[in-house]
Amino acid sequence: MAKEMEGDNRKRRALARAAQEKGHQASEAGVSLGSSKQRRHAKHAERAEQDGPPPEGANKPGPRAPRPQEAPEPDPTWPRRPPPTGDNTPDTGALRLRYRELVTSAAEQIGADFDTAREAGRATVSVLARMVDEVARRRLLDVVPPELTDGQDLSTPIRRTDVIGFVQDVGGQLGCPPEQARMRIQAVLAAVAAQDPDLLGALHLPDELAELTRPPQPGGGLVGPDGHAAAIDEEELQAALRRLPDWTGDSRAITRTLVLPPDQLERVLLRVDRLKQQLGRGPRISRPDERTAQFLVRTTNAGAVTAQDVDLALRVDEAITHANAGLT
To answer: Which residues contact 312 (CB under 8 A, 6 or more apart)?
Structure first.
């Protein structure tokens, strides 16, 4: 078998030499079966002599193909990272105050629940908006959360713009005594000022209202609605006595004398004593006899009657009525 294959090879080589002598390719004479001697391979070889090595893949560019451009230099400003979160720098623009943060802060200051503080915020904003002019009102309403203004009367002007009037109007909306109303106003305004320190100043409030922007003191309710011990003037005293028809006095002190059967009088005194526990202060009481009690209110530090004394006298009148003393 090996000798037969060797003989075939000699014959092929002889035929190939004969074809070459005549100027033909060996493959044209049909004497070569190798792929390197086929016509197609011959064409590839001819092209290779001209263009260089053949491509090694269907998608590989040839030697004359344009070279790809080099990648551009990276942008020095890239990547563009977002600004860091948690930036609490105050914005000087008219940004909305954060509702839940405001109400929660007020609630913590007065030791109340969220709903109580929310209603305090609504009442405070309502009264404040009606105490200021139109420009200040728009400034206020652009900033406070809508949860504190929706459904509120914000347009009916309030004529009285002093502290006592502010406290009384808020207390009237909340249905609470002036001492509690003042505490809640202070807590709300302090929470507002904590988020926007410039807002209250931009409203051009009377100087005396600045006292209400201070946070309430621990154990609040110990002061009257004006927040200080300044004596009231004669005009204010006469106005107060018109609201207190059972009281008499002057700028130094006001008094009320109550005459009742002993059992009814004891009920009144028990009620007034509870009032003192609630407010931290109460009237001075003297007992000329078992049927009589005299109430005196004044501010010792001022040596005169102050707005908080007027408020205390009003609370004493309420206590007497609630004790079912038989008075109208």
So the answer is: 224, 279, 281, 282, 283, 297
pLDDT for the residue 89 = 39
Token pair, residue 108, equals 């913590």
In this predicted model, which residue has the larger pLDDT, 183 or 259? Answer: 259
Please choose, from the candidates 106, 150, 98, the residue with its C-alpha nearest in 3D space to the C-alpha of residue 129: 150
pLDDT in tens, 267-308: 999 989 888 777 667 899 999 999 999 999 988 767 888 887
- All domains of the chain in start order, with CATH: 99-213 (1.10.490.110), 234-322 (3.30.1360.20)
The tens digit of pLDDT for each residue in 164-181 reads: 888 888 888 998 877 778
Kindly tell me the burial class for residue 181, based on how many C-beta atoms sit within 10 Å of its own C-beta (0-12, 13-18, 19 or more). Answer: buried
Give residue for tokens 């839940």.
100
Prior bond to 79 cis, omega within 30? yes
Q: What is the DSSP letter of 87?
A: -
Which pTM was predicted? 0.42
How far apart CA 181 and CA 166 sit, in angstroms, is 9
pLDDT of residue 204: 79
Are the C-beta atoms of 76 and 169 separated by less than 8 Å? no
CA distance 147 to 99: 7
Among 182-196, 200-214, 296-310, the range scoring the smallest mean pLDDT is 200-214
Contact 168, 178 (CB under 8 A): yes
Q: Could you give the CA distance from residue 211 to residue 90 in angstroms, rounded to a whole number? A: 24
Q: Which residues have C-beta within 8 Å of that of residue 308, sequence separation ≥ 6?
A: 223, 224, 225, 226, 229, 299
